[in-house]
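Continuing the series of single-chain predictions for the mutant panel. This is the parent chain; the variants come on the following pages.
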Amino acid sequence: MDTMRDRFAPVMTELLDEDPRVAVVLAEIGRDGLAEAARRHPDRVINVGIREQLLIGAGAGLALTGLRPVLHTFGSFLVERPFEQVKLDLGHQDAGAVLVSGLGSYDWPAGGFTHMAPGDVALLDTLDGWTVHVPGHPDEAEALLRHAVAAGDDKVYVRLSVQTNAEARPVDGARFLTVRSGGSGVVVAVGPMLDPVLDATGGLDVTVLHATTVRPFDGEALRRATGAAGADVVLVEPYLAGTSTAAANDALADVPHRILGLGVARRELRRYGTMEEHIAAHGLDPHGLRRRITRFLDGAARGGS
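Parent structure:
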């Protein structure tokens, strides 16, 4: 299977050919895949070099001229390093762009902590008006990328990862998808966490929701899944643990509920290892998820926390 990021260059090449508003800005990373597109559209495929702040600034400038810029590099260089430019050049100027990351929280551990971005979505949460897509499969990534480029002049972040589910699910760029129904709790699996969650919750009487668009947060889907009486909710996110707990709490403010936020811990893992080892170390493999989810639900059954 190809990766989510493998879809980026072919999709963008098609969109550049089809839509004269579309532009792509790179900071070295990803230039080879768009070499032919750059030859065909030299004024709309721009490589600024290893200058991530300029990447955002140039994209904002293109947006202010009426283009639809798509900005691409690794997540840590796209959101964290140039955050001031994301905040001011895009946000303060109300300029729309599509930010497409490569690598997720720990997709390339050998790159070290400089190439990891577990706090990217939480950081964007400090700003207003961002749509955030977290696909769980290359087909979902392609659909959400096309959706993002077509989304007028909105500010959109598409978070790509090497980690993937075995099959794609229908995505519409807005709503959560009910994958399994149950009556003893709700588990929201974000993007590539769906397969581990399905494995972890096998035999449990829980509803599983698949979330590929997390901002805006689909509070209505969560409310329907919990019901008027409320429920226990587990959020399983492939980035910083607890990133969406406030959004879920807001959605359920008027019904009884408990929330457990699972994801990447704040504690830095300083050994390179592999992606799979990082997943297990953060308890995001099926075994770790099963243990923590059942302990949480068992606590509710006993009247504890």
